[in-house]
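Q: Sequence in, structure out?
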Amino acid sequence: MLSVGRANLDLYSRDVGAAFEDITSFDAMVGGSPTNIAIGVARLGRSAAVLTAVGDDRTGDFVLRYLRDEGVDVRHVERIPGKLTSLALLGVQPPDHFPLSFYREDPADIYITVEDVDAVPMPTVRSVQVSGNALSRGPCANAARHALRTAKEHGIVTYMDLDLRPTEWERPQDFGAAILDAATDVDVVIGTEDEFAAALLDDPGPIMETRRVPDGADAALAGAIGDLLSAGPQVIIVKRGSDGASIVDTNGVEDVRGFPVTVVNTVGAGDAFAAGLIRSRLEGFDWSDSVRFANACGAIVVTRHGCSAAFPTLSEVEFFMRMEQP
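A: Exactly. Output:
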């Protein structure tokens, strides 16, 4: 699996429950949705590579070492002279408040190019996952589209996690326009209800600010998701948090229940879900079993602190699912 998009150093508060200004120390790990997904797939025992970029700085050294230690192929991680590796600082105030500060004014990862994509031996890749955020700016936007088109030309299954980061988009409507343009080359689109709403509903501005589907918009959103299927994707996966996830295709909608757990930290659960889904499809699971496995990955992560550091191994997921059998 090849994952395309941003990579950053994540600093997570060790002071659980503390206000951001009262934090005294952080744990360091690697993040960025597409990079997280690659780490998650590797943790689950499948080959994973990432196409991204880091700066020629010490932070870039840290990211590369971390990824190698996780078993992620870093041959396609570029070093961009004069640019800094992206950074994120996160407070941890359970159960649902995680104040986040991004340092992405001019990050290295937006400078991957079409030529970087062409350097990847695509016939050896079985699936390509592109972050929706990768479409927002810089040469990376063209590179991400090129990666999807090239993958499709080689008959490779393509995934896109919407990965909405509102501050990365110059105008709210640009997010939806980019997603719809790229959807022609995407087989599977993954996102939360609010991400789909921001991409597909007529007025994305308020959603970008609140990250919440407007009251009364359920029918409109369901219709818009149905319309998205006609643009190219074969399957749409809607993540619904503790309620599990829904599989939407031309046959209709199938809801796959989640796992009841005590939530400690929701950060990273969506990336673990995507990793579990892609891993299961690579293993030949059907859609229902793939989403159930993905739900289990997400459920495990929300019971732990951290993001990529909290991703489960295959044995942990299999044990969890055995224990959760009715």
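Residues 129 and 160 are 5 Å apart (CA to CA).
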